[in-house]
Amino acid sequence: MVMDWNRIEGNWKQFKGSAKEKWAKLTDDDLKLIEGRREQLEGRLQERYGKAKDQVRQDVDDWLKTLH
Question: Can you give the residue ranges of the CsbD-like domain (predicted)?
């Protein structure tokens, strides 16, 4: 079952470690600013990794599938 994004947003402190593990270029400040908002996460990933919006969206979708 794919994680519901609302659950990630509501429990960001719980999930930000996993995000940091997956995307090591995200800084602690990035993670603080993201606050569980998907658009913010995707925007930061685009900045840090220089990937296209579609690729970043797919990366985030793939990450979601790994969460329980």
Answer: 6-57
